[in-house]
Amino acid sequence: MRKSKPAKKAKAPSLKKQFAFMREAMIDSWLSLPPERRTNFLRKKIGIVGSAL
For 40, which DSSP code? Predict the structure, then answer.
């Protein structure tokens, strides 16, 4: 059986912290957008150029 490398164990908490930081940064950047850009995924296309919630 192979022993796990100590570097892998030390890297895991660092990656978790980095992931948490990047996730919060993405959420903050999303929330900094105006509401009409944040809720764009709720819009339905009407015709060629129109859309509605």
Answer: G
